[in-house]
Amino acid sequence: MARIPDDFIQDLLNRVDIVDVVERYVPLKKAGQNYMACCPFHKEKSPSFTVSQTKQFYHCFGCGVHGSALTFIMELQALSFPEAVRQLAESVGMQVPVEDRPQSEEQKKVPGIYDVLKVAFDFYRAQLKTAPAAIEYFKRRGVEGKTAAKFGLGYAPGGDDWQPLKAVYPDYDWNVTLAEAGLVIDKEESKRRYDRFRERVMFPIMNQRSQIIGFGGRVMGQGEPKYLNSPETPVFSKGRELYGLPQARTAIRDHNRALVAEGYMDVVMLHQHGIEYAVASLGTACTPEHIRKLLKLADEVVFGFDGDKAGIKAAWRALENSLPEVKDGKELKFLFLPAEHDPDSYVQEFGRAAFESLIDEAALPLSQYLLKELSAQVDLTMEEGRARLVHIARPHLDQLIQAPILKLMLSKRLAEMCQLSTAEFASLTVAPSVDVPVFPEMSADTAFDSAPVYDAWQGQGQVKRPWQPRSNGGFKRGAKGKSWRAEEDRPRLKPAAQHDPLLRVLQLVLFRPSILQGQDECELAWPNEGFSGLVRCVLMRARLDVELLGAELVERCQDLPGFARLAPILNESHHLFDKFDQDELLIEISNSLMAATQNFSLGSTLSRKEELDALSASRGLTDEESQEYLTLLLRR
């Protein structure tokens, strides 16, 4: 996939004025050197959203959002990084360059696919006007004319004609783009081509730039499949797109809420009744990409499901996909309608107010729904049932990587349900880093505090341990002196704080990119994958403009894998280094760069045990490294 060059992005940001960009969406007022407005990302009565023309940066003191003109477009319209670059570039008449690498065949097809899909869209809309059966179907379903126009509803004719689209595509029989766009099907055995959609009412699917990327077709009477979607194409992926999102985006922002329904007609009728923040997944479970996109637009996402078995199954899939994406401060809810209703029928029978009251009163927050479903699988009156609850809850808690506060609160609630203390529950739900037996008396840092436990494990009676803990956190073989017994008071030493030098480098550079001035470019020798690859790319971009602020540097790394990790690390860095002076920062970055480079060198020349021995002697081992060291010794 082609990558947008960094120098073009910088040139683009130099050409646009963030004040002009923001003012297209939010009225700004001059306030000293800056401009002020009510924040478009959260509801507020007094302005706390400030735009700096000199720094070309925005910041909201209410909700904390900040960034460049590019970030503003991305967040406000929930666009991907490349989409936002293209939109911003078009606004100032710039052409997004294509790198020297040749385009893939898939990329070459994209412009043609958009063209043929637009022609099909116009054709289906025109056909609806002359199709009494389709018009009657929509009237029977309660669809008004203005709603049909809003969603571009249409009709694909059929009957004895298997090639209706031939009327608008003169090259129908040999146009390969028609097949690539999913509009026709080629039968290899008969060498015959025919339209994919026939005798169906049509629901066009648009991307966030309101371009047609696919269709959904529904039979008007009996027939299978009831709904038929476009196949996966270079411009359409069910796992990334949401039906109705272009029409719903403004309402989602205004209400700070998104409602995810299951069907096209659910969305159409909800919008018609004033619930214009509704969207739908496209015949598939709600994916992490869907959830990520909606959480950029609103703080509350409600999943609305039918109360049947299929709805319950879809809700659980949505919950599982939501866990890695949910963040503290965001709220996900699950609404189950009465068994005889779906959102379409419910809103038509009871109206908007009743439907929204149902959301407010009956929708279960993610935490309650998770606990309800997990506890229903066990018998909490039995020890075995409570033990199983701990076992089945752990994988779900581990998924809450972006919501530490919610994870803590869920852990406390689960501990109460299992009749455990919070500390006991936490110890049981921390997955061991290696596959070794774990005893109640043992933890990662006190695994050999008790010789009887070790002896019993070995089944050999009283034996001397072949290693002793070092005060710096490592271990040494063959230490002399008495071994500790469980009944003796062992002196407790407070472990020295250990720092991952690679993480330390990233924290320092995000805190103040200018400290890289004069430092060797040692990151060029680091591995270019995983976390080290992320740090390497951030450092290389920071060196291009060391006068950047840390937040600006983060914004320029939107396209990097692992980008989501940067903002939390940036926030953490301010707490760590706020009181450091410039000299202390320079010493810290120099030492951390050297330590990180040495670690990579060690890894390529030493066995893992030798590497840990060397680290133990130089800086001591972290808890995880100590546990790994113990495991390696046990394998001898």
* Tally of individual helices: 25
Going across the biggest sheet, name each strand in turn: 1-2-3-4-5
Q: Quick one: CATH class of the largest domain?
A: Alpha Beta
**Class per helix and strand makeup:** alpha+beta
Instruction: Tell me the count of domains.
Output: 4
**Shape assignment:** globular
CATH fold-level topology of the largest domain: Dna Topoisomerase Vi A Subunit, Chain: A, domain 2
If classified by CATH, what would the architecture of the largest domain be? 3-Layer(aba) Sandwich
Biggest β-sheet: count, sense, barrel?
5 strands, antiparallel
How far the N terminus sits from the C terminus, by CA atoms, comes to 47 Å
Please provide the count of β strands.
18
- Which stretches are poorly predicted, pLDDT < 50 over at least 5 residues? 432-497
The radius of gyration is 30 Å
- Provide the residue-averaged pLDDT: 81
Query: What is the helix fraction of residues, given as a range?
Result: 40-55%
Strand content: 5-15%
Describe the structure.
It is a single chain. This protein is α+β, with helices and mostly antiparallel strands. It folds into four domains: 6-92, Zinc finger, CHC2-typedomain (DNA Primase, Chain A, Alpha-Beta Complex); 113-353, 3-Layer(aba) Sandwich (Dna Topoisomerase Vi A Subunit, Chain: A, domain 2); 377-429, no CATH class; 501-604. The strands form five sheets. A five-stranded antiparallel beta sheet has the order 1-2-3-4-5. A five-stranded mixed beta sheet has the order 13-12-14-15-16, with helices on both faces. A hairpin with a 2-residue loop joins strand 1 and strand 2. Helix 3 (69-77) crosses helix 4 (81-91), helix 16 crosses helix 17 (422-428) and helix 19 (501-511) packs antiparallel against helix 23 (582-605).
